[in-house]
Write a structure and sequence with these properties.
Blueprint (H helix, E strand, L loop, with lengths): L1 H34 L3 H4 L1 H7 L7 H4 L10 H12 L6 H10 L2 H26 L2 E2 L5 E2 L2 H6 L9 H38 L3 H4 L2 E5 L2 E4 H18 L3 H29 L4 H10 L16 H16 L7 H4 L7 H29 L15 H13 E2 L2 E2 H33 L3 H21 L3 H24 L1 H16 L13 H13 L5
Antiparallel strand pairs: 1-2, 3-4, 5-6
Length: 522
Amino acid sequence: MLETLSGINDVINSFVWTKMGVWLLIFTGIVMTILTRGFQFTHVGHWWKKTIGSLLHKNVISHTEDRATISQFQALCTALAATVGVGNIAGVSAAIISGGPGAVFWMWFAAILGMMTNYSENILGIYFRRKNHADEWSGGAMYYLEDGLGKYKGMKHVGRILAILFAICAVFASFGIGNMGQVNKIVLNFTSSFDIKPLSSIVLFTSDETDVTLYMLIAGIVIMFLVGTVVIGGLQRIANVAEKIVPVMVLLFVFGSLVIILKNVMMVGPAFACIFKYAFSAPALWGGVTGIGFKTIITQGCKRGVFSNEAGLGSSVMVHSNSNVKEPVKQGLWGIFEVFADTIIVCTMTSLVILTSGVIDLETGAIETTSDALLVADAFNTVFKVDLFDFGRMFVALAILVFAFTTILGWSQYGSKAVEYLAGDKAPIATKIYKIVFVLLIVSGSLMTSSIAWDISDTFNGLMMIPNLIGVLAMSPLVVKITNNYIARRIKGDKSVKPILSYDPKIEEENAKALAEDPNLD
């Protein structure tokens, strides 16, 4: 039965990621870049100033008195909590192992285009958001599919169906990639790097020739307790934790990476040369893998890039929609920065650590290990190993622990919002049940060894992407209209232009009034 299930999933996964999804993702990024006249390039100074350059502004970082919203910085950190995860460590090394160093180039390519996809998602998320039963903002692909695409002539039922499919896939993805998959990586890396013999020697059962120990079970229970105390507290508590952990964890990982890169500074040039050399042609030998084709290099790079920054999945928009902004474009700018920070900065650091440390021979492609997470750990050990103490491996294990932990928190919010949409009037009860199930499944993640569960989760992750990208493309004229409106008012200073802020006339009026009273609000 497992073989049959695996075979069916492989067919769907191949269609979603290789035959359609990746190419639809690239196409959407290109379309949105062209339609916005290369906004991520032509207005780089503006979006940089309005994001990272605005962190000292009170309205950006201050906690809002409205319990139904979170600050712009909290929204960014919560979104980054879900995106800056295992994909930035294991995902990058997996792309290099399976697609060669050229896959890194295509991760960059996907990220540059993904900036405008994420920008568009966030604009639509803010524009089509509405208040829920708890007077909190709710937004996401399900709303701009139903109320945006669904408002086109003859598309009412299509928009509704796509919205439901997106929400269902988001729930399943939150259980898999956003929960059990992350927990599994935490437990395996932590228990191997910080071994406690009295616990790891007690084998509970064996699955797929892998021993599941008491140590793994205890680690899973501890993680379940920690996640539960945060998730049950709702978005405000998740955002508060994220804004404290995310900046610190990113800076520490970047600092550790820079130490290795600077130590091997003479290899930086050859590493970049290797990336660009093999971006358009497959190496003859790379880690013992034969038959790597140009298509594989592109798909591996783009797929891992999406797995890292989630641009195009329509996931992070569900938390961005809770921001206290009035301007849809303002949150769109944070979407651009989110992809930039996740892939252009963090993933580049990881790839350079791998390619400059010597764990891969840039000439022959010989690799010390084919394990994605251990490859990064070995790279850190080239600098941080002291005698018998593998401090490099310990650092990576702790990084995966923190990265994956915050990813679980972010995805719990995504799944909760998807359940809220599907449940309708019964949302209050449904979301509580969802959170309980989500937390309980964490222990299962610590004990599971079958790769089928992760493969199926990866498929649901991709299935989210297709209806979302259809919605973004269908709503592209609206994104352009809102963008041009913002440029005219905010960049060119045309005060005669009225803002476009919401699909709801009442919300539009309230937000326009707030902006008129305080032009610097956004």
